Amino acid sequence: MPIAGRLAGRRHLLAGTGALLAAPALAPAARAQGRFPDRPIRLIVPWPPGGSADAQLRSLAELASKTLGQPVLVENRAGASGTLGAQFLTTQARPDGYTLSQMHMSVVRRPFLVRTPPWDPVQDFTHIIGLCGWMFGVVVKADGPIRSWQDYVAHARANPGRLTYATSGIATTNHLAMEELSAREKIELVHVPYRASNEAAVAVASGEVMSVADSSAWAPLVEGGQLRLLCVWTAERSPRFPAAPTLKELGYDMVITSPYGLSGPKGMDPAVVQRLHDAFHAALMDPANAAVRTQFDMPLEYYSNRDYRDFIARRAEYEQAMAKKLNLRID
């Protein structure tokens, strides 16, 4: 064989050998992706322990841990109307799938209430799964003079600026709903924000405030006879509290469940997102999690990751329009 031919053949052989030697270098990265997760996952619950969302998400985390093969550790970060989880995702968390937080309507709404928006609710997060909503209601002390929603409105009208109501924070869904109800009835109520719905319910039972408008952490105290439920905000009456009318039955075309889900930092790997979605979806549909939702009367509001992102985008448009309409500002 001519010398040139032998050299060409040698170069071809060396090139092929180089390719074979280079191939194993790609394998660890591919295997690393396939191992997700290989360490515990942090799930931020932006409320104190003991409330309905905390209970549902703790159940979800425990069940998802079995599928993922790693612990999902709940971390409570209460304050700022439930937005500290979102703040952490946008300022400190890496988009590697190991830090997640509850996504709820106060997070979506907040950029439209402040002069300097802290985040874009659609673009600055990776939305993973929609989970469920809340059953909201208005509750008063059982041994007080207010025995119905009509009594509540009449008392507020007769005592302007003296009827107090608690919620889990300023500019939360339930706070804004009460503001709308007050405007429709032309009554003046006094808002008293608490850190969590269970704390607000206890405050009513102890006489610190006259009523609470929040999710059903008040339910045990209603069943125990300390509190009285005046109305619920779901589409239908609650099987657990069939005597309480809905807002629609009371003449308001309002159904308020405030669906929530799970999100991570923006820029997450789609394969990791799908792995998390599938694990949390299995947990959501597990009878054990369904039992927790039943305990707190939480309606199922499931969305896949793509559908949940679309839902957040629609809600962001709605919240922006409502903030302009009601001239809402918190700074």
Automatic annotation (TrEMBL):
It comes from the Bacteria. The keyword DNA-binding does not apply. Residues 1-22 form the signal peptide. Keywords: Signal. The keyword Secreted does not apply. Pfam families: TctC (PF03401). Belongs to the UPF0065 (bug) family. This is Tripartite tricarboxylate transporter substrate binding protein. It comes from Roseicella frigidaeris.
